[in-house]
Design goal:
By secondary structure, the chain is of the alpha/beta class. The chain is built from six helices and five strands, in the order E-H-E-H-H-E-H-E-H-E-H. Keywords: Flavoprotein, FMN, NAD, Oxidoreductase.
Length: about 220
């Protein structure tokens, strides 16, 4: 049975969150293809994982037999999250842009699962696992736009997910999500609606594609 690791990090509920709406659509199509499968879900806004501590960090560089009680406890939480990553057949991440980058809760999850010599390094333990990132944003930071240089979501996540963890990354980018809320962006509403529609279509297509890939 296929396992989907689904992570949301938006601080807003589903009815107000562009990233949650699209990850929900992806998961719906995924579960239609894998009705007997397993979905491991983390809502990092409701239940954040611990931010990395000195004990959790240092424990990754010494044998378990040499761990202090504090290191052992902190590292156990890292291992639990790492094992979820390694067991997943596909990964789905909602990553809205807050102040030009990802939510701190998502950064905390990444800090826990990136472990040199295991998930990162020459032979990453989850290498090749497909990961779909829904990278929503209130404006547009696409190439050629005035704020292109402020894009620290896709650039950063590509570096850590693809380069460090060896995952197979694809982004879905619903943009201009503030157009319906900010009067100054009213003329951009049609572009937002088109972006939203493309995101839902891409989520459905990606879910079906990965379902076929996992079943093959």
């Amino acid at each position: 049975m296929a396992t989907l690791l689904h992570i949301d990090s938006s601080v807003f509920p589903a009815e107000e969150s562009a990233s949650r709406a699209v990850t929900e659509a992806f998961r719906k199509h995924w579960e239609e293809q894998h009705p007997q499968g397993t979905a491991v879900y983390h809502d990092l806004a409701a239940e954040p994982v611990p931010h990395i501590t000195a004990d959790a960090h240092l424990a990754g560089f010494v044998p378990a037999s040499a761990h202090t009680p504090g290191q052992a406890a902190a590292f156990a939480e890292r291992v639990r999250l790492i094992e979820e990553l390694e067991r997943a057949d596909a990964i789905l991440i909602g990553a809205p842009m807050y102040n030009y980058t990802i939510p701190s809760t998502l950064k905390a999850w990444l800090d826990n699962v990136i472990l040199m010599g295991r998930t990162a390094g020459e032979n990453p333990s989850a290498k090749g696992t497909p990961v779909t990132v829904v990278a929503s944003r209130g404006g547009s930071y696409a190439p050629g736009t005035p704020r292109e240089g402020y894009e620290y979501v896709q650039n950063y996540l590509r570096a850590v997910l693809a380069d460090a963890l060896g995952l197979d990354v694809e982004f879905i980018v619903p943009e201009l999500t503030m157009a319906t809320k900010n009067p100054a962006m009213a003329e951009l509403v049609p572009l937002y609606e088109a972006s939203r529609d493309r995101a839902f279509q891409a989520a459905a297509a990606r879910a079906r594609q990965l379902a076929e890939r996992v079943a093959a």
